Amino acid sequence: MWASYRFFADIPFVAPSASKEAAEIDLLWWFLCAVSLVMTVLIFIGVIFFAFKYRRKPGVAPVAVHGSNVLEITWSIIPFIVMLVMFWWGAQLFYDAQNPPKDAEEIFVVGKQWMWKLQHSDGNREMNALHVPVGRAVKLTMASEDVIHSFSIPALRVRHDVVPGHYDALWFRATKPGHYRIFCTEYCGDRHSQMIGFVDVLDQPDYNTWAGGGSTGTLAEQGQQLFTQNGCSTCHLLNEQGRCPIMKNVYNHPVELSDGHTVIADDAYLRESILEPNAKIVKGFDANVMPNFKGQLSEENVIQLIAYIKSLSTTATPTGVQPGAAPAPAIKKPKAVIKAVIKEAAAVTPPQQ
Ligand code: CUA
Fold this sequence. Notes:
This protein is an alpha+beta fold. The chain has helices at residues 2-9, 20-53, 69-98, 204-212, 219-229, 232-235, 267-275, 299-311, 334-347, and strands at 105-112, 115-120, 125-127, 129-133, 137-144, 149-153, 158-162, 168-173, 178-184, 197-202, 254-256, 262-264. Among the domains are: 15-97, Helix Hairpins (Orthogonal Bundle); 219-311, Cytochrome Bc1 Complex, Chain D, domain 2. Helices cover 37% and strands 18% of the residues. Dinuclear copper ion (CUA) is lined by residues 111, 114, 149, 184, 186-188, 192, 195.
């Protein structure tokens, strides 16, 4: 009996809170709980009270009731306001979660049945473990090598699906040193439950000690090796025009395509151009010159190559383009989103008879 009590006492029902966002998200969560509790109690009291008050009485015929406008308006408007508060509050937190600060340190995550492989920009690699300094914003750029996984650190209140074929991102700023769990929270095969690990939030001196040990060149240097090994350097020459575009100052810059479109050479574009070069042809160049690297390079290799291409961009980026911007299009402020939705709805003309 005592043993089973101890067993339940040891289960953490509330995850530790180790970031500023964690505290903010918890506050909203408790607010939702409180609203649900108040509504549940009100409804149950009402059900019991009316069941008793209007029970069938011998000899009394029930009176026909035709509704009450005051009541109906009241119970429509008050919940509407409460729900608007929930929406606004949630949208603000969502907006913050989708927009990593510009100075966030980028770490790359590759999910694979059934492990998490992590690469820091300084070249440090980890498996099912992540070391981060306390107080610094960290942005995770994530790819999957096989199926859909989901990267989750409950203590930091971050979680994001990792879908094969493109990059997903999340960011956090840990505020409390400690040892916290990483989970995969999307069923991804029979050993899904073992796809777990730990994140260690370290004080800056401890982090420096950890980061200083055993690295095999920076991510960009590893990418440069791949660039030569795979023969990329024979066509993408460094300083003169070869058979393929020069990679200098390409990253996060606009690229003109042969079909007349212009795209920004962000992580997603570069990844696609490495794996399926014919998807988008740069203006003035021929299709079918570069071989497909799909199946030849792992997601980790692609990340290294992109880091190398990034390192070749030294000049100031054009206005309106931020270096290292989120791979997904940045989410607009809730106010702007609502405005855009209203404008779009107004522009739709009903189909003519
Ligand atoms: Cu990966 Cu579940």
